[in-house]
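In response to the reviewer comment on reproducibility (Comment 2.3), we provide here a single inverse folding case reported in full, input and output, so that an independent group could reproduce the run without further information from us. The structure tokens appear first.
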């Protein structure tokens, strides 16, 4: 849908009686803050520990310049500040970035605005400031409720400190709260995993993401991988089915491949990704999908700062980026859609290809929609790869 008004084309919008263009297209925003106090032993994300304050201010200035340079009439449905540990940048700088976003874009009335935090990265007073500024969702990494497991992971807090920080999040007025848990840790038992899950559940956290430990190249865990006492594949499978059972028995929906939530607390930002929605990434190493094109920013803070006035451009300058073909779009709909309980619409060919997965309990078709079961999520990459052939 495009409307021409005074020789200007507005895509995906309509004109009100007063001539104002109202966007029907919605996008999301991701802001990458790559700073942290200490890089965890398993972390492969682009992040920088112990940067000085001057670099942080320069990075903030560069981020704000990139935000100002971007032009769109789309409505913003969600904003996610991730990292790294965003509060390490400084709460005042985070608020300055957020104010620029609010000034430069039209936020939906129910826009979900998430901030990732670490249990030791933010105080109650700072959380209150963030809440009053408009942040309405907090994601705080837990990883484990066992202090020994936290130490092995390289986390810099205890479970008691985590629980104290989570109480501060609630005291600041946040209701929409998420936490992350990692399982299949070195020397972890099924009993240890259950303890962690029940700890999070008993804190009434409405959104819990659970990931199996992945040993990525370049991480401390990778270099000592041969000495790590990790659960074998069968034990890891048992842990996975156990956690799925526990979460669902306690009223959590397995709505997305790695996430469980109470009703109404699904991550809108993540679902937008899985629905093939468009999004803009601001900051070093941030990725975007906009106007049918995928692109990313430079994965180096120094270069990002140095080129701030040259390499940040509006969507109309993305002509050198290839537009996804219809075949690529169809493939992405399968690849992303099967990562949620919503699934994907079927046709005769997809039904034929998925028949063996249905017969073996990995997938189901209901009302013309193909979706994976808990068992299917466990081998989702293999299933998706075969469906895409």
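Designed residues, in position order:
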């Amino acid at each position: 849908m495009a409307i021409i008004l005074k020789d200007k084309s507005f895509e995906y919008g309509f004109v009100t009686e007063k001539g104002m263009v109202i966007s029907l297209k919605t996008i999301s925003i991701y802001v990458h803050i790559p700073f942290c106090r200490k890089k965890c032993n398993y972390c492969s994300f682009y992040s920088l520990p112990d940067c000085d304050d001057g670099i942080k201010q320069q990075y903030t200035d560069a981020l704000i310049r990139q935000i100002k340079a971007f032009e769109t009439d789309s409505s913003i449905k969600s904003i996610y500040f991730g990292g790294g540990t965003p509060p390490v940048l400084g709460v005042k700088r985070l608020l300055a970035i957020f104010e620029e976003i609010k000034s430069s874009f039209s936020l939906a009335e129910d826009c979900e605005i998430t901030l990732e935090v670490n249990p030791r990265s933010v105080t109650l007073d700072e959380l209150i400031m963030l809440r009053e500024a408009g942040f309405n969702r907090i994601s705080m990494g837990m990883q484990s409720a066992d202090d020994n497991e936290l130490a092995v992971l390289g986390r810099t807090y205890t479970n008691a400190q985590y629980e104290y920080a989570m109480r501060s999040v609630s005291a600041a007025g946040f209701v929409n709260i998420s936490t992350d848990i990692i399982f299949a840790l070195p020397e972890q038992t099924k009993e240890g995993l259950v303890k962690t899950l029940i700890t999070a559940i008993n804190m009434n956290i409405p959104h819990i993401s659970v990931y199996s430990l992945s040993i990525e190249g370049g991480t401390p865990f990778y270099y000592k991988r041969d000495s790590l006492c990790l659960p074998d594949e069968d034990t890891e499978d048992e842990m996975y089915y156990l956690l799925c059972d526990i979460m669902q028995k306690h009223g959590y929906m397995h709505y997305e491949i790695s996430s469980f939530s109470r009703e109404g607390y699904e991550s809108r930002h993540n679902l937008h990704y899985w629905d093939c929605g468009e999004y803009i990434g601001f900051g070093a190493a941030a990725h975007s999908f906009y106007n049918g094109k995928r692109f990313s920013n430079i994965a180096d803070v120094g270069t990002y700062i140095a080129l701030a006035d040259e390499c940040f451009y509006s969507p109309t300058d993305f002509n050198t980026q290839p537009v996804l073909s219809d075949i690529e779009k169809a493939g992405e709909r399968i690849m992303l859609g099967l990562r949620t309980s919503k699934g994907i619409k079927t046709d005769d060919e997809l039904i034929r290809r998925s028949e063996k997965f249905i017969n073996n309990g990995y997938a189901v078709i209901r009302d013309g929609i193909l979706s994976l079961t808990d068992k299917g999520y466990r081998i989702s990459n293999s299933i998706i790869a075969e469906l895409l052939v």
